[in-house]
Design a protein that fits this description.
Structural class: alpha/beta
Order of helices and strands: EHEHEHEHEHEEEEHEHHEE
Number of helices: 8
Largest sheet: 5 strands, parallel
Oligomer: single chain
Number of strands: 12
CATH superfamily of the largest domain: Response regulator
Low-confidence stretches: 125-130
Number of domains: 2
Mean pLDDT: 86
Radius of gyration: 18 Å
Shape: globular
Strand order of the largest sheet: 2-1-3-4-5
Helix content: 40-55%
Strand content: 15-25%
């Protein structure tokens, strides 16, 4: 039975979430601060949570800080941010911090449950070598969200993997920042595109021998970026 950690400081909302999740067959636990969430998720050995539903506006550490610290600690449990802060810049900030999905409040229950189910199904779909891409001695496993370079394995967030997958699908073509915002994040409003640039910086650290002089993820001035698998 999948276990979900609910991080929400408004008790009536947290209890409502727990009731509906348990009605769908999930186990749910509630904490009401960012610090409590990190304590539960990072303790060794930690309870095996399969998903975190995380509010942003929390007492103490906010949700953005929580997910950032989880990723910095190499804890890659799926995180669904559920918050009243639904502006495009907030959505992109959540993804940049390492969230796997982002829903603004209020949202319909059936949409929330569909997003929860979609994230939880990822763990059921993990199959060795099921969805991989190899280039220049590197292998990206999109199922396990890992990049293998020689004997080293680097974990990736879902959004990092999705952005890289999108660029790979358009190999050799200049892809605009606007296209990446719309197709990868589903943001279709005028939004600061620097979040894309921040993701590209991180991806270059993963796949480039010299991130300051990229060969695979190249900047196309005035447009966006281009992926080259085997640069000459």
């Amino acid at each position: 039975m999948p276990r979900v950690l609910i991080v929400e400081d408004e008790q009536h909302l947290a209890e409502g979430l727990r009731f509906n999740l348990e009605a769908e067959g999930y186990q749910a636990q509630i904490v009401d601060t960012g610090e409590a969430a990190l304590e539960v998720l990072l303790e060794k050995p930690s309870p095996p949570f399969d998903l975190v539903v995380l509010d942003v506006m929390l007492p103490g550490k906010d949700g953005f800080a929580v997910v950032s610290e989880l990723r910095a600690a190499r804890q890659f449990v799926p995180v669904l941010i559920l918050t009243a802060r639904g502006r495009p810049e907030d959505v992109l900030r959540g993804f940049a911090a390492g969230a796997d999905d982002y829903l603004p409040k209020p949202t319909e229950l059936k949409i929330l449950l569909a997003r929860v189910g979609g994230l939880l199904r990822r763990s059921e779909w993990l199959r060795p070598a099921a969805d991989q891409y190899t280039f220049a001695g590197k292998t990206i496993d999109f199922d396990t969200l890992e990049l293998r370079v020689g004997d080293h394995t680097l974990p990736m967030t879902l959004m990092e993997a999705n952005l890289l997958r999108y660029l790979i699908a358009h190999e050799g073509k200049a892809v605009s920042r606007k296209s990446m915002l719309e197709e990868v994040w589903g943001v279709r409003e005028d939004t600061d595109t620097r979040a894309i640039d921040n993701f590209i910086v991180r991806l270059r650290r993963y796949i480039e021998k010299e991130p300051a002089h990229p060969k695979h993820l190249r900047t196309v001035r005035g447009v966006g970026y281009k992926f080259i698998a085997e640069p000459r």
